[in-house]
Design goal:
Blueprint (H helix, E strand, L loop, with lengths): L2 H6 L9 E3 L2 E2 H16 L22 H15 L5 H14 L8
Antiparallel strand pairs: 1-2
Helix pairs in contact: 2-4
Length: 104
């Protein structure tokens, strides 16, 4: 079963269940979406510029806190998206994301 199949099979209430401490299933789906967008938006990919906005570390901010802050900001930006929108967006980015090389 694929991630998208699993997400499509969830009831709305299951999207709000804790998946890991401090994060719901919905939060993790949005996190994966953000990771895909980040990979697709890197400078050097066709159609992307070096000026694309990326979160920046605050002066003196430890890396771990920066990662959690940036992830939380991305999740907060998508609070108005319902499960169907998240699944559609994931489906789109997963279709165009670079695939990992098969194991040798």
């Amino acid at each position: 079963m694929s991630l998208l199949d699993l997400l499509r099979g969830l009831r709305r209430s299951e999207w709000n269940r804790a998946a890991v401490p401090g994060r719901t299933v919905r939060d993790l789906a949005v996190h994966i979406l953000g990771d895909c967008h980040g990979r697709l938006g890197r400078p050097g990919r066709p159609g992307r510029s070096a000026a694309s906005p990326q979160p920046a570390m605050a002066p003196g901010e430890p890396l771990e806190l920066f990662i959690h802050r940036a992830d939380g900001e991305w999740i907060d930006l998508h609070t108005d998206r319902g499960p169907a929108e998240i699944i559609d967006a994931l489906s789109t980015v997963l279709d165009i994301s670079p695939r990992a090389a098969p194991p040798r």
